[in-house]
Design goal:
alpha/beta, D-Amino Acid Oxidase, Chain A, domain 2, eight-stranded mixed beta sheet, six-stranded mixed beta sheet, binds flavin-adenine dinucleotide
């Protein structure tokens, strides 16, 4: 079996395939975690997901995260420090009260905090903050280490990992996959898993299958190392609006900006983020970067005194309906897609590996979920 893509999704899939005693080769055109999975935030937010399947998947993934560090045998900097969605204006409190109520109904431990409770938990925030939705179930992880840990553990189970090797074609005969052509020769395989994230449409095209996964660009500012500044991870209610708004929706803030704030183990702050459709262009202009900075400093004024040392840009794999595609292609036997996780790929990586196994083994366990994650739904809407 060949897995294309060495981000969190491809490495998670390769790990599960190898662990279940399948012969696997993971092929990555650059480095492990070298694309979106190494240019993103570190949050494993549950409360930011929509009720229904998105929350169910995120909760199942979180259960897998609980023991993942031990299982993979390497630190992935997983911490369950809680997460907060800050609300800037009293006029948004009603909508956020509804947001909290819906998530409680979905079985989540989330509560609405008033201004004083919010500032007591996050003293770095501005005193104009009206309140926040808080959940102690939200967590964080180092996404780059996660991709590397999955790849290393897959190798221990016998997987071969080939980096700096690009898949240039998928070879098919009589409607079946027979292998892949790479920049380093042909590889025979009866099953190919397309885990190329924002590049998954290009891989599907090699088999003649149309797959609508668009790159949704996001930029993050990285600061110098500072003393612990926040507790857990922070989003703002504008982030939730930008994330769930459809393309062309008039409610999207300029550049799709909404605050995401996290702090690495070493002390660097990750300040995000934007959401834009600009193809695969990584050149983010100063207008976008300064808009991210002004939005963040409005919410956390102390950030005005912290230096930005660099920026990073990633492409969220966007499907349009907030759900990834995890499915077998009907027209080409042996071609599987596991891609399209938009802004939730870090949170959903562990469960995605399990879902691919369930798909291959035709297990009952996740059958209802997999029905909703199918490829065809993109052409039905
Ligand atoms: C700014 C930003 C912030 C985010 N924050 C969060 C967050 O806090 N929490 C969260 O859950 N998610 C977050 N996300 C989303 C998350 O990063 C993605 O959903 C996830 O990284 C996607 O992983 P992937 O493995 O599908 O894609 P990628 O990491 O992009 O991996 C795909 C891989 O396929 C490889 N590839 C492509 N074509 C080929 C080819 N022809 N041959 C071989 N290899 C190929 C690429 O080189 C790449 O390494 C964020 C995203 C962005 C952009």
């Amino acid at each position: 079996m060949v897995v294309i893509g060495g981000g969190v999704i491809g490495t998670s899939v390769a790990y599960q395939l190898a662990k279940t005693k399948r012969k696997v080769m993971l092929i990555e055109k650059g480095e492990i975690g070298g694309q979106t999975s190494g240019s993103c935030d570190k949050a494993i937010f549950l409360q930011s997901k929509q009720p229904g399947l998105p929350i169910q998947m995120a909760k199942a993934s979180m259960r897998l995260y609980e023991n993942l560090e031990d299982e993979l045998g390497m630190s992935i900097e997983f911490k369950k420090n809680g997460g907060m969605i800050v609300i800037e204006s009293d006029t948004h409190m009603d909508a956020m009260a509804k947001f909290v109520k819906e998530r409680k109904k979905a079985g989540m431990d989330v509560k609405l905090l008033d201004r004083n409770e919010t500032l007591a938990w996050q003293p770095g925030l501005s005193s104009h903050i009206a309140g926040a939705a808080f959940s102690k179930e939200d967590a964080e992880v180092n996404p780059l280490r996660l991709s590397q840990a999955f790849a290393q553990a897959a190798k221990r189970y016998g997987a071969v990992v080939r980096t700096h090797t690009e898949v240039t074609d998928i070879i098919c005969a009589d409607g079946k996959v027979t292998g892949v052509q790479t920049t380093d020769g042909k590889i025979a395989a009866e099953t190919v898993v397309n885990a190329a994230g924002p590049f998954a449409s290009q891989i599907a095209e090699m088999t003649g299958i149309g797959l609508t996964i668009m790159p949704r660009r996001g930029a993050i500012l990285i600061t110098e190392k500072i003393e612990p500044f926040i507790h857990g991870n922070i989003l703002c209610s504008q982030y939730i609006a930008a994330k769930h708004a459809a393309s062309g929706d008039g409610d999207i803030p300029p550049y799709g900006i909404g605050l995401s704030l996290g702090q690495t183990e070493r002390g660097n702050l990750l300040i995000g983020a934007s959401r834009e459709f600009k193809g695969y262009d990584k050149a983010v202009g100063p207008d976008v970067l300064s808009a991210i900075a002004s939005h963040a400093t409005r919410i956390a004024p102390a950030l005005n005194n912290v230096n930005i040392i660099r920026t990073m840009v990633g492409f969220r794999p966007f499907t349009g309906d907030g759900l990834p595609i995890i499915d077998k292609a009907k027209a080409v036997e042996g071609f599987i897609t596991a891609a399209g996780h938009e802004g939730d790929g870090i949170a959903l990586a562990p469960i995605t590996g399990h879902l691919v196994i369930s798909l291959l083994e035709d297990e009952e366990h996740y059958k209802d979920w997999l029905k909703r994650l199918r490829l065809e739904r993109m052409h039905e809407v």
